[in-house]
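Recap from last week: sequence in, structure out.
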Amino acid sequence: MKTYLLSLIATAAVAALVGFLSPEGNLGKYVKLVSMLLLLTVILAPLPTAIGSLRDLPALFRTGGEETGSEQESLQNVLDTTSKTYFAAELTERLEERFGVAPGEISPVIRWEERQGESIPAEVTLLLSGRAKWKDSAKMETYVRDLLGCPCHSAIDSG
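Predicted structure tokens:
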């Protein structure tokens, strides 16, 4: 873009200089016409690239199975990661509310497992810090075990 603008400014400056130095009369009119055509050519130079970009625009709005395999896999990975993050945040919030733990003092570390194409929690470790260290971790583990149906352990967060 910088190169384009510099080319445009240089061409405009040369066209103005040539127009200023050209003689009056028929020859001057032709010199100005050629200068303006040259300037117009420089202005319209990026047009083919812009049109090519517009051809690629519909690819941004594709839906359903039209994505390539790698695009679909990439989108699925983003969705899985976001879902897992949301799941961990919801579990944290429930534990904080149920056991009176201050925000940030408990964080679940979840090991995920793939079953029949779905990610499910296989094991949860509750990292306890601050005042949460003094809460009954066995009750928290039982709650998570009953809620998710997977083994749950707790550990003291040293960080």
